[in-house]
Specification:
259 residues, mainly alpha, 5% strand, membrane, ECF_transporter_component, ECF_CbiQ, transmembrane
């Protein structure tokens, strides 16, 4: 059972790992806001954002293959969601073809839109990967709670991440049991009924597990507050790093808005 899906490399030692989780969360949020506010087609600004992230990734010692593998997963979904804009955005028609009486023309405005969308999405995902890969999830959730997030929401996220792996293991055991009792290739209707029964059984088991976990926590005096061994505290390095990185992130956005 694998429990390090998001924070697999949070145990490494680097200047990025040592920074306060609240600082990293706020900087990640600032970075995403700056990327979204950058005008479409400001490729020099997007290149500057990539350079900033690349420098921090190099400092954090995260494996390049791990980062690329996780970040590139989102791009096909973003492309499928935005590809229709290539043919509907106004602009100079660069490529056209007819399909069944329908005329489709790719415009420069549409290509600019989809390229900007892909760049923004990739940058945002890279920032989130950097945040979660350099911060243990309990510390990150505690930092978010300290910043004023609702305690209930933080606890839901904590339990969801903690028990998601148990549910995945449960599904895999149910699938193995189904396969061991199946001979040949059963008809689609039988497979659909089996999958429906598995979903219902998983829901009941999850509900019962949640009740048992709640009863066990209540018996141990749980009061709804998450506690960790490490207390969060800003130091001089956090303040200096936060101020410097904030200026570095705001500068490309300011230049792109003024030009």
């Amino acid at each position: 059972m694998r429990h390090s899906f998001l924070d697999q490399y949070s145990h490494l030692v680097s200047p990025a790992h040592r920074r306060d989780p609240r600082l990293k969360f706020l900087l990640s949020l600032l970075f995403i806001v700056a990327v979204v506010l950058t005008p479409a087609g400001s490729w020099a600004t997007y290149a500057a954002y990539f350079a900033i992230l690349g420098s921090i990734f190099a400092i954090s010692k995260l494996p390049l293959g791990y980062v690329l593998k996780r970040s590139l997963i989102i791009l096909p979904f973003v492309f499928l969601l935005g590809v229709i804009n290539v043919f509907t955005r106004p602009g100079v028609e660069l490529l056209s073809f007819d399909i069944g009486g329908w005329h489709l023309g790719a415009t420069d405005g549409g290509l600019k839109f989809i390229s900007t969308l892909l760049a923004r999405s990739w940058l945002s995902v890279l920032a989130l990967i950097l945040l979660t890969s350099t911060t243990p999830l309990p510390a990150l959730l505690k930092g978010i709670e300290r910043l004023g997030a609702p305690r209930v929401l933080v606890m839901i996220l904590s339990f969801m991440y903690r028990y998601l792996f148990l549910l995945i293991d449960e599904v895999l055991r149910m699938k193995q049991a189904r396969d061991s009792r199946s001979v040949g290739s059963p008809p689609a209707s039988f497979q659909a009924r089996t999958v429906g029964s598995m979903i219902g059984s998983l829901f009941i088991r999850s509900y019962e597990r949640g009740e048992r976990v709640y009863a066990a926590m209540a018996a141990r005096g749980f009061d709804g507050q998450s506690r960790t061994f490490n207390e969060l505290a800003f130091d001089g390095t956090d303040i200096a790093a936060g101020a410097a990185l904030s200026l570095v992130l705001i500068l490309p956005l300011t230049v792109s808005l003024l030009v």
